[in-house]
Amino acid sequence: MHKPSKLSNLFWILSGCIIGTAVFAEMLGMKIFSLGKLLGLNSFAVSGLTFDFSMSVGILIWPFVFVISDLVNEYFGRSGVKRVSFLTAGIILFGFVFIYIGTSLPGSDFWLQLNNKDGHGQPFDIDFAYQSIFRQSGGIIVGSVTAFLISQMVDAYTFHSLRVITGHKKLWLRATGSTIVSQLIDSFIVLFIAFYVFGNWSMTQVLSVGVVQYFYKIILAIALTPVIYLAHNYIDRYLGDEHPNVNAAGEDNEKTAA
Fold first, then answer.
1. Which of 182, 231, 237, 256 is deepest in the core (most CB within 10 A)?
2. pLDDT (0 to 100) of residue 254
3. For residue range 45-91, what is the model confidence (pLDDT) as tens digits?
4. Where are the alpha helices (DSSP H) in the chain?
5. Can you spell out the DSSP letters for 50-68?
6. Are 244 and 76 in contact (CB under 8 A)?
7. Where are the chain's structural domains?
């Protein structure tokens, strides 16, 4: 049996990390939490926008998707990012289909009976709670997948363009720069489609939440820069002689992502 190459193993490990993180983010994304309440921050208004530091729970781990995508781009080029991005989007849509089926199935009588009260002894409909938590609206599905694919393509293109300029140097610039550009798009597209076009949010709410989420992503991306360098150095040592031959112009090595 043919032994997989180190490059092949690396591609699927990074792809698995992207897919898993993205799916977790989608599952958690329905809840909007208050970072202000958590940290004791007071809301404030600027130019008619009220910022109360509200964010989707899914945003907490979403920046890791783009950090890992930058590593895919570094070693496998834009073609590698495109492959894993479309695979991730397909798995997310596949998951939502079965979530819809699962939430539509009638609950067993004994399950409903055993879970008919909450922790305070009040009546509780566990089937309704299950549906409310897992069944996201069609608008959220469309918004999240659309925003993911567009932002991933923008991230890959920006990363590649910066690599043409920097060559193999200044990884921090490629990683942070591509995230700054791509997340500006991602932060607002998903909210606009999911909660403004298909939901009941006002444009003011979309902008205020989008701005908070965008700055959170940028801050975390900068904070994770040392992690990217550590991962990069570890991967270089792991690959050894199998390190992809990507020239200084940053051209894609199509074979490495195969």
1. 182
2. 43
3. 777 777 788 888 888 888 888 889 989 988 998 899 999 999 999 99
4. 6-28, 35-39, 63-104, 109-114, 126-134, 138-166, 171-191, 203-223, 225-239
5. EE--EEEGGGGTTHHHHHH
6. yes
7. 6-257
